[in-house]
Amino acid sequence: MAKAAAKKTAAAASPSVDRRPALAGRTTTATGVKVEVLPPAERISLRAPEASVAALSKALGLTLPKKPKTSASKGGRTALWLGPDEWLVIDEGGNDPLADCATVAALHSAVGISHRNIAISVTGPAAEAAINSGCPQDLSLDAFPAGAASRTILGKAEIVLLRTSNDAFRVECWRSFSDYVFTFLSEGARDAAG
């Protein structure tokens, strides 16, 4: 009983620790481009054979894209094609895509990765140049139009890139690489502005 009281007293005396999101409050603005951290979102890594795509699409409320470099969006949820049987599903509407997939009996693998990833927005007329400072992919509108998505690299880090409009991109990266990716994009933004 004395041990329990001591633990209670120690817990009450210790200061509360607030978890701070990675890159909290960071933003970079340069002529023609802005780099900023996007709010948290629900994410899943989804793998499924062709025979399961229709059932998963129905459960997720959008048609999973089947072509390379494509995405589909509906109601705050976006699915990005990453491979013949692989998608990144991002939900910014406060819904849980993992729970939606759990209702599907068809063969699939859905893994929650919400806390693994960070999203960074790169917007403005110089956004393409800022990203291309470290990404070898052709990001011209002809080769990478709005809605295009791919897994690629930025400097030495793997990213998933989504073009959300002609002058806007969403960069998804692992939390452990987020400082590197944000700093790289910020330097790219300053170079593109110069």
TrEMBL record:
Q: Which InterPro entries match?
A: SoxG, SoxG_het, TrmE/GcvT-like
Top-level taxon in the UniProt lineage: Bacteria
What Gene Ontology molecular function terms does this protein carry?
sarcosine oxidase activity
- Specify one Pfam family: SoxG
Q: Where is this region: Disordered?
A: 1-25
Q: Set out the biological process GO terms recorded for this chain's protein.
A: sarcosine catabolic process
Gene3D superfamilies from the UniProt entry? Heterotetrameric sarcosine oxidase, Probable tRNA modification gtpase trme, domain 1
Task: Show the ranges annotated as biased composition (Low complexity).
Answer: 1-13
Coiled-coil region: none
Instruction: Please give the name of this protein.
Output: Sarcosine oxidase subunit gamma family protein
